[in-house]
Amino acid sequence: MTGAGTAAGTAAGTGAWAGAGTAPAGRPPLRIVLCDDERMVRTALRVILEAEADLEVVGEAATGAEAVALVRALAPDVVLMDVRMPEIDGIRATEQILATMAEPPRIVVVTTFENDDYVYDALRAGAVGFLLKRADPDELIGAVRLVARGDSLLFPAAVRSLAAARTAGAPPAHAPWVARLTDREADVLRLMATGLSNHEMSERLGVGPQTVKTHVASVLTKTGSRDRTQAVIAAYEGGFIMKKS
pTM here? Predict the structure, then answer.
């Protein structure tokens, strides 16, 4: 988990990492499950994460099936999920976890290549974002804290590239929900696609943070999305970005 030039650099440009590296005071440690078929990778992740007082690795899984069973049993806050794993891959494991838990954890998929089709499928399945295996320790720690507080690891350039590959050829037909967006909701979705946080959207639109939060919630409902990342994917696949931007 070392090196520069990762996808996290894209997030840094949008302010997504702002404050993410600061441990919240007075809270119990965030409980994390590591899912990767390589023991060395799991060990490296554990060493990095458990060096932080507010982070605790509570379990490890080497296969997708083990991951599903372990996460259900331990109910962690965050799961780091290898996108390619034996038995069932990280995509199916993510789907099963999210479909069977009333309060599922935040799942971040970990991959070697940013343009991996598996990453896109995992995001569509409900993962809140992805990290490259060469991410710096500070990026890893910041990502865990970021998703635990309810944000998504949204890398606009990567999502745009992945979506473009999936919608190559004829422009996608506009999804029915596009016509149901209000003008302000459309503005919010476009800004979400650039990776702006609620606070940044609030400043850009000149409205209060609570108003932005309300619009984001409405966008998620209308697009049938679990989180912001799924909404942005829906925006590309539903023809919204191509039509509006």
Answer: 0.76
- Within 10 angstroms of residue 114's Cβ, the number of other Cβ atoms is 17
Judged by DSSP in three states, 131 sits in: strand
Neighbours of 116 (CB within 10 A): 17
Helix (H) or strand (E) segment spanning residue 79: strand 78-82
Question: Interior CA angle at 209 toward 208 and 211, to 5°?
Answer: 65
Buried b (16+ CB within 10 A) or exposed e, 137-156: bebbbbbbbbbbeebbbbbb
Q: What is the sign of the dihedral through the CA atoms of 29, 30, 35 and 41?
A: negative
Residue 164 and residue 115: Cα distance in Å, rounded?
11
- In angstroms, the CA 156 to CA 149 distance is 20
Phi/psi of residue 50, each to 5°?
A: -80, 0
Question: What do you get for the CA distance between the two ends of the chain, in Å?
Answer: 36
* Spatial separation of the C-alpha atoms in residues 78 and 106, rounded to whole Å: 5
d(CA 36, CA 24): 27
The pLDDT tens digits of the residues spanning 106-161 come to 999 988 876 667 788 888 888 888 888 888 999 999 999 989 987 777 666 667 77
62's tokens: 């080497």
Please say whether the beta carbons of 229 and 107 come within 8 A: no
Where is pLDDT greater, at 183 or 149? 183
What is the structure's pLDDT at 14? 34
